[in-house]
Design brief:
The protein is of the alpha+beta class. It folds into 2 domains: 18-66 and 211-271 and 347-512, no CATH class; 97-206 and 281-338, no CATH class. It is built from 17 helices and 14 strands. The chain has helices spanning 18-25, 29-32, 47-51, 55-66, 88-91, 211-215, 219-231, 274-281, 299-307, 310-319, 329-338, 348-359, 372-383, 456-459, 474-480, 489-496, 500-512, and strands at 33-34, 82-83, 114-119, 138-139, 153-159, 175-181, 198-203, 241-242, 245-246, 363-364, 394-395, 422-423, 431-432, 445-446. The strands form 7 sheets. Strands 1-10 form a two-stranded parallel sheet. Helix 4 (55-66) packs across helix 12 and helix 13 (372-383) packs across helix 17. It is globular, with a radius of gyration of 23 Å. It starts with 17 loop residues before the first helix and ends with a helix.
Length: 513
């Protein structure tokens, strides 16, 4: 069921006085906040990173995020045989959220879209196993991509809600959503399920600043948030919460660290989460603890198809002479694609630097909190119940992080840490359902942190929001929360009753945090 929940936030002062404004201005706490408000606001190291003497290592790690990866240009080499993008920053423009795109082209700057190809006939809607969870539309010679991106079509369709896309005072807004089509002949390898069962969705990249602070939120605090919402009657994804405790699938890897990253809550902790995993499976860069190719969910399907492809066989030894092991190209291609002892393209020290950068990204300070309109918007945000899911603040714990791969030890001194900081991400890090047309796969989507998003137009060049960037501004994002059956419907009904001045104040507040 959908319930009207009590506000799930840490205790806040009744009066938003100067001390409270000062506290919330430090969105990432004293150890995690930058006061940069320019186009590079998402790119700064945290005070904790600098205080630990890691500023130089941070810059070295940053090179790997910003540099284009090629096949043969150490230390920025990778890509083979398939890849999703050749640069991390091309997915995260200005280190932020991916932008809305009219077409799917991996080389288009700002295209943070990851294709979601899944079996829509299955209640659990698993990914199609003949392609990767993040399907690769690029390949290096002589290989061929899993999906021909030239055949992927994105159509943006208009949507009219039950209120006619108008507020009661006559102000109008528009809503659009994506429809993705991929013909059967765009797929290179045989499909694991029949083509007619496949569904296609888009998920765009998230902002990556402040991820180290999110990782530092104690596991028991996150569990208490689930328990509080469960007791208040909220619907919670049974994949993560079973009655009064975590579901077995709530954990990641061989740790007891509950998932907290990505819209699908597929990752956690940070040391084997978005960036750590992505540097391997987006530009396909191998390292000492990931020495295999990222091909497809069932690697054998692609490996067999490519090894039996006459065109791949004809050129394989030309591009990979060192893999002429047996003289039989089918065997050698298959063994190359399935190999899990490939040479490491990224050194251990470069990987450490990359993770210092990833864990060391600061959060921009909140802005203009003393402004009268912002203060009114802040109060309305809470009065409407938005803070139920967009929980304002958390306090980090000792930050004794974990790493499922075992590369980093608990409290590893090589990485920055954020113990006992009050932070303001404005998220409960729990999945809810908005029941949007062409919704996210499974319908469950993690509450997106709102901190720093108001700077997206100057940092990333756009203000697009929501998991597939369908919302072009804050008003559209709010109104998509009001679909029939949405867990947030009740808050949107309250938002609709506000005057234009109050609606603008809410938007101004959201853009200030």
């Amino acid at each position: 069921m959908t319930a009207v929940l009590t506000s799930c936030k840490e205790e806040e002062p009744e009066e938003f006085n100067n001390d409270a404004i000062d506290e919330e201005t430090y969105a990432g706490g004293r150890l995690g906040t930058t006061f940069n408000q320019s186009a590079s606001a998402y790119e700064d190291p945290t005070p904790a990173c600098e205080q630990a003497g890691m500023a130089t290592a941070f810059k070295y790690g940053e090179f790997f995020f910003e540099h284009t990866i090629t096949q043969n240009n150490p230390p920025f080499n990778g890509l083979g045989p398939l890849y999703v993008r050749s640069s991390c920053e091309s997915c995260h423009p200005g280190y932020g959220h991916g932008r809305r795109m009219e077409r799917y082209r991996a080389d288009d700057w700002g295209n943070g879209y990851l294709l979601v190809v899944y079996d829509k006939s299955n209640p659990s809607e698993p990914y199609e196993t003949s392609v990767a969870g993040m399907p690769q539309t690029k390949a290096v010679a002589p290989f061929k991509p899993s999906i021909d991106e030239n055949k992927i079509q994105i159509a943006w369709l208009n949507y009219t809600d039950e209120w006619g896309n108008k507020f009661d005072d006559g102000e109008s807004y528009s809503l659009i959503y994506p429809e993705v089509t991929i013909p059967e002949d765009a797929f290179y390898a045989p499909l694991a399920v029949s083509y007619g069962k496949l569904g296609f969705r888009l998920e765009t990249t998230i902002g990556i600043y402040g991820t180290g602070l999110i990782d530092a939120i104690p596991d028991d605090s996150l569990k208490a948030q689930y328990q509080k919402e469960y007791e208040a009657g909220a619907d919670l994804n049974p994949a993560f919460w079973a009655g009064n405790d975590w579901a077995p699938t709530a954990y990641y890897g061989n740790t007891t660290h509950p998932k907290r990253f990505t819209y699908a809550l597929s990752r956690g902790p940070l040391q084997d989460a978005p960036g750590s995993n992505a540097i391997w499976n987006i530009p396909n860069v191998t390292r000492s603890n990931k020495r295999s190719h990222y091909l497809s969910l069932n690697k054998i399907i692609y490996a067999v198809t490519a090894s039996q492809d006459p065109e791949v066989q004809a050129d394989f030894y030309h591009y990979f002479p060192e893999w002429n092991k047996t003289g039989n190209p089918e065997t050698d291609i298959y063994n190359y694609l399935m190999c899990d002892t490939l040479p490491a393209e990224m050194s251990d020290q470069d990987y450490v630097n990359f993770m210092i950068w990833h864990r060391g990204l600061a959060v921009p300070a909140a802005r203009n909190l003393a402004d009268a309109d912002v203060q009114r918007g802040r109060k309305l945000f809470r009065d409407m119940g938005c803070a139920t899911c967009h929980r304002p603040s958390w306090t980090t714990g000792p930050d004794e992080f974990t790493d499922p791969t075992g590369f980093f030890s608990t409290a590893d001194a090589r990485l920055p840490r954020y113990p006992y900081q009050k932070i303001w991400p404005y998220s409960d890090f729990i999945q809810h359902r908005l029941k949007m047309v062409n919704d996210i796969r499974t319908g469950w989507c993690r509450t997106t942190p709102l901190w720093g998003r108001g700077l997206s137009p100057i940092c990333s060049g756009h203000g697009d929001r929501l998991h597939d960037a369908r919302a072009r501004n804050v008003i559209e994002a709010i109104m998509w929360h009001g679909c029939p059956g949405s867990d947030a419907r009740w808050t949107v009904e309250k938002f609709r009753k506000l005057s234009k001045e109050d609606r603008d104040a809410v938007v101004k507040f959201i853009n200030a945090i």
